[in-house]
Amino acid sequence: MPNIVVVGAQWGDEGKGKIIDILAKDADVVARYQGGHNAGHTVVVNDEEYILHLIPSGIIHPGKICMIGNGVVIDPEALIGEIEGLKSRGIAIDNNLFISKNSHLIMPYHCIIDKESERSKSIGTTGRGIGPAYVDKVARTGIRMSDLLDPQLFREKLELNLSNMNYLLYNVYKSEQLDLEEIYSKYMGYAKKIGKYITDVSILINKYIEENSNILFEGAQGTLLDIDHGTYPYVTSSNAIAGGACTGLGIGPTKIDGVLGVSKAYTTRVGSGPFPTELKDKLGNDLRSKGREYGATTGRPRRCGWLDVVVVRYSVIINGMSGIALTKLDILDEYPNIKICVGYKYKGNIYNEMPHESSVLWNCEPVYEEIEGWQESTAGIKRFDSLPDKAKAYIERIEDLIGVSIDIISTSQKREDTIIKQNPFKDYLLV
Ligand code: IMP
Predict the structure, then answer these.
(1) What whole-number distance in Å separates Cα of residue 39 and Cα of residue 226?
(2) Average model confidence (pLDDT) across the chain
(3) Phi, psi (degrees; rounded to nearest 5) at 47
(4) d(Cα 11, Cα 225) in Å, to the nearest integer?
(5) Per annotation, catalytic residue among 37, 41, 61, 110
(6) Residue nearest to atom 19 of ligand 1 (CA)
(7) Measured in Å, how far apart are the chain's first and last C-alpha atoms?
(8) How does pLDDT run across 410-425, given as a tens digit for each residue?
(9) Residue 8: is its pLDDT beyond 80?
(10) What is the per-residue pLDDT for 431?
(11) In what order do the strands lie in the sheet with 418-420?
(12) How much distance in Å is there from the Cα of 236 to the middle of ligand 1?
């Protein structure tokens, strides 16, 4: 049975939540492998909107097993809020949510440091403590989910961390120091609420793989926000690419059968960093309002621009994508002309492959191909044949440029408004 990774092909917010929700129908397990509650996955079912930050979007399908892997950093308060929010809407959680013992906890000092260090770094982080939690993980001082289950050990680790952090908060950031007892009792309270979900997710997911279950690996953010392969330093602090599924869950690369990339029919980015096709004019504002481009986590307006196939082609390569899900096609319905960026021009040179030099990314001029818009509604179309010819031509031109097929096309926020040309669970070749 195929195991499929769903990964963002741009700077996040590509609409992965909806695609994962659709594919979850054919999955037994949906497992998240990196990031934290910086992510926001929006799913609309029967006109009801669900915004998930930590729990895999598959949870909305009754009976699906959902896992949060060791690669995720977890703010227990945010997690509990999400669990309670879903329960209050009648979604069953207790027997189907599993959280890795080895996932790291976001602590109150992480959020303060994230916000304070943002003053000098200006990355435009979500301010949720994600980066500082990963810093502690790599520094080998992090506190893990399993520590919540051992109050004595948790206290010792907290004591040690807090003595360093309070020094930093007070002397460097001139911020108030945090109280050990207050954090300790708060986190012990969290342990009572989430202890039952904590388990060895790596062993569990490998059991499901052994039993030939269909597994969907859920990536957060996107390839260009990956800590190693993104537009560094304007990135998040985890491996958002498909390879992150292996380290972030403890599964071997041989267990992955296909990678579905998700790309918008145009481009958006939230936070700072280079964005070659950004439209800072009326058109950019128009895309933002038509596409309702405001962050699901922070509510920040997203920067908008034309589709950049230099970016998507790069993502296809880095992730070994088998195919693409193209979202928000309907947002382009009214434009008489639509542009596709096929290269970057900088100091007389043309770059067709993604450059990593920030001087090029910040200062290049996009090289555009222009195609005629279809100027009729595609909203709600469910069959490829029913799309206007010019919309089909746009899709086929993107396929030519990126070198893989567009297998899924989303024509509105709703679950049912989707064209499925190939279902990854049924049609992707096993490696
Ligand atoms: P952090 O992940 O909060 O540290 O933020 C680092 C960068 O990643 C910032 O530019 C954020 O706006 C961006 N970012 C983090 N999560 C998401 C996401 O889910 N969608 C889009 N951008 C994100």
Answers:
(1) 13
(2) 96
(3) 65, 5
(4) 6
(5) 41
(6) 39
(7) 12
(8) 999 999 999 999 999 9
(9) yes
(10) 41
(11) 198-199, 97-100, 65-68, 29-32, 215-218, 3-8, 258-264, 323-327, 405-410, 418-420
(12) 6
Closest ligand 1 atom number to CA of residue 225? 8
The residue whose CA has the least distance to atom 8 of ligand 1 is 236
Alpha helices per DSSP H over 331-417: 358-363, 389-402
pLDDT at 429 over 70: no
Q: Which residue has the tokens 């027997």?
A: 95
Q: Determine the Cα angle at 371 with ends 368 and 376, to 5°.
A: 135
Q: If we measure between CA atoms, which residue out of 59, 9, 13, 14 comes closest to residue 32?
A: 59
Stretch 289-296: mean pLDDT: 93
Cα 224 to Cα 236, 270, 343: the distances in Å are 9, 12, 16
Per-residue pLDDT, averaged over 319-330, amounts to 98
- Model confidence band, residue 177 (pLDDT cutoffs 50, 70, 90): very high
d(CA 373, CA 343): 21
* CA distance linking residue 116 with residue 97, whole number of Å: 34
Q: What is the mean pLDDT of residues 331-343?
A: 98
In tens, the pLDDT along 178-215 reads 999 999 999 999 999 999 999 999 999 999 999 999 99
Alpha-carbon distance 1 to 257, whole Å? Answer: 9
When comparing pLDDT for 367 and 426, which is higher?
Answer: 367
* Mutate-to-test residue for ligand 1 from 54, 57, 125, highest number of ligand atoms within 8 A of CB: 125
Q: Which protein residues are within 6 Å of ligand 1, measured from CB?
A: 12-13, 38-40, 123-126, 128, 130-131, 220-221, 225, 234, 236-237, 270-271
| Burial class (CB within 10 angstroms; exposed 0-12, middle 13-18, buried 19+) of 314 | buried
Q: Which residue among 236, 267, 272, 298 is best mutated to probe the pocket of ligand 1, counting the most ligand atoms within 8 A of its Cβ?
A: 236
Q: Let me know if 110 is a catalytic residue.
A: no
Tell me if residue 417 is catalytic: no
Q: What is the pLDDT of residues 129-173, one digit of tens each?
A: 999 999 999 999 999 999 999 999 999 999 999 999 999 999 999
